[in-house]
Amino acid sequence: MNIFTAFPLEVAINVIDTVCSSTMYIGSVPPQITPDITKMNFQYMTPCLNYTVPLLKAEKLWNHPRFRKNRKLVILATGWTNTVNDSETIAMISKAFMCRPGVNFVIVDAAYYVDTLYKWSAFNTDLIGEHLAVGLQHLVEVMPFIEIHLIGHSLGAHIMGKAGRSFERLTGHLVARITGLDPAKPCFRYEKALPGLMRGDAKLVDIIHSNIGILAKRDPMGDIDFYPGGVHPIKPGCLSIGCSHTRAVEYFAESVYPRQESSYLGWKCHSWKELEWRKCDTLTTSTMGYVINWKAKGIYYVDVNGKSPFGKNPNSPKRGRLDCVKHRCKYKN
To answer: According to its UniProt record, where is this protein located (predicted)?
Structure first.
């Protein structure tokens, strides 16, 4: 899909975005399905067991015998129409993290509150984020020094932004890191109405943009913003906006696998024009994905392949993505 087919889609989405954001700004959102924190859960994923507890009883999860208290915590929130039992995003990222035994990997089960009318789902991101922060507050009461990394795709990125802000309000501390995977665009035009993810929501906010200007935000939003494949909304190897929107998830998941952390190399762009022309500073770099340069700031161009493996860093080890420990489960779910 070239620029002549992508442009009409961007214009149409801009109209939808303006209408949705304006109705929220003036407070005329129709009655929606309001999130009920008692129906929301954390799901702790391991190679052999998925363990679920309510957000309001998060301490049960943190005190679970298989929860490793000396390991960092990674929490994932997905986007619109994605539920914990039916999500391509969860499948890809959880599979990768099962190859990282040094991480506690948890999914936010927001029930059906992001599986309804899009405007309602977008509006629900604030309340879901607040509820998530309450669960995280329970965590730090029993594990005050744990490193927290929040990851969100599409609407999930904005859930994590709100969770980060609410967590700081509740505890006085910022979570370590929030990664936004192609944060959703429609309905997030006006910060006063629905702010979404932004710089300052965590000690480090990093963004991977893959369908810019259509389903996802175009402009830089974090401390470091990666633009794999450049500024075109359709990524290499894709023929649809949905494929491009999911690419951010695929890129990140690929970087989680052991020995794949340096698969994606970003070059710093000192201006948007440099990014458009892909004429960026090859001497100032950062890897993109699970492992990044925490001192890097600004926008970065990343060269990618049109099919898996997507990373093109010539210095990355040439090992397969499935090269991880085989787990022998001695107990049932």
So the answer is: Secreted
